[in-house]
Write a structure and sequence with these properties.
Number of domains: 1
Number of strands: 10
Shape: globular
Helix content: 25-40%
Distance between the termini: 12 Å
Largest sheet: 6 strands, parallel
Strand content: 15-25%
CATH topology: TIM Barrel
CATH architecture: Alpha-Beta Barrel
Number of helices: 9
Order of helices and strands: EHHEHEHEHEHEEEHEHEH
CATH class: Alpha Beta
Radius of gyration: 18 Å
């Protein structure tokens, strides 16, 4: 059986970049670079016949002024056959939001994105902005980086977010590749677990999609090689804005990664899916 590749893009858009960047690091030109990079991703995906998942903020799908509103590009992504997921309404830091703010961000982003694409009930996935919360109290996993403690800040618990997603008829949420109890983190703080394929688990009726690696560098390419060797499903995360930076998510690394993936596909060793396609075919039906 071929390995599976799922690529998820965190498309922050203009407002998302502003909310996730320190003022002294912000440059307005990066907003336009990100938009152009998405266009290049779509071209490359069409060339390679690869479908991907784009997590978009709902604000970008609202009626607004360009580049803060970019509904036409979001619709273009959907019409190309890629999956649109929610990346919140404006890229908020969820651990610090109130209960009502969390619910409305999840609700309005879903509504805005579905109205934009014209596809009712099509937004079934959620990708937490900033990859937060990283704490999951049911699994005894606590991250001080969330800067919020449950139950004083309910948004600081992954389990709470999953329950809100379920109420709004979402079906999946991207999480870290593994959640370890706090004592295990302390004991193994210096250990690096290479090529770990986290489980796809269902909690509160929400499929938890493991985030295996962010980037397309040599390590990502080795990860893909290991997935093919073991017939595993690999989830790779990228940020369109990062294609313009000379780091692990650079355009050169992305192009090289795509070329390698294309080779595996040609040899029937690899298949690519959106998150929902993979979930429906291999997880929820028990295949």
């Amino acid at each position: 059986m071929p390995a599976k590749l799922i690529i998820i893009w965190d498309y922050d858009s203009a407002l998302g970049q502003i909310n996730s960047t320190m003022p002294y690091n912000f440059d307005f030109k990066h907003i336009y670079e990100e938009i152009e990079n998405v266009e290049n991703i779509l071209i490359k995906a069409k060339e390679k016949n690869i479908k991907m998942t784009f997590a978009c903020i709902g604000f970008a799908a609202e009626e607004s002024v360009y580049p803060f509103g970019n509904a036409s590009q979001i619709k273009k992504i959907s019409e190309a056959g890629h999956e649109i997921a929610s990346h919140s309404w404006r890229h908020e830091w969820f651990p610090h939001l109130t209960d009502k703010q969390i619910f409305r961000s999840l609700e309005r982003s879903k509504q805005a994105l579905e109205k934009c694409t014209g596809k009712e009930n099509s937004v079934s996935g959620f990708v937490p902005p900033h990859s937060r919360p990283m704490s999951w109290y049911k699994k005894y996993s606590v991250s001080l980086g969330d800067r919020a403690i449950y139950p004083f800040h309910k948004g600081g618990d992954t389990g709470y977010i999953l329950r809100q997603l379920s109420l709004l008829n979402y079906r999946w949420c991207r999480v870290l590749r593994s959640y370890k109890p706090v004592w295990e983190k302390i004991l193994n703080s210096g250990a690096k677990e290479e090529f770990f394929f986290g489980k796809w688990e269902i909690h509160n009726d929400i499929l938890c999609v493991p985030q295996h690696y962010t980037g397309f560098d040599e390590y990502a390419r080795k990860y893909l090689e290991k997935a093919v060797e073991k017939n595993e499903a690999l989830v790779i995360v990228g940020h369109p804005a990062a294609l313009s930076r000379n780091k692990s998510e650079s355009a050169d690394n992305f192009n090289e990664f795509m070329n390698i993936a294309e080779g595996y596909i040609a040899e029937n060793q690899l298949e690519t899916y959106t998150v929902t396609e993979y979930a429906d075919k291999f997880i929820r039906q028990g295949a």
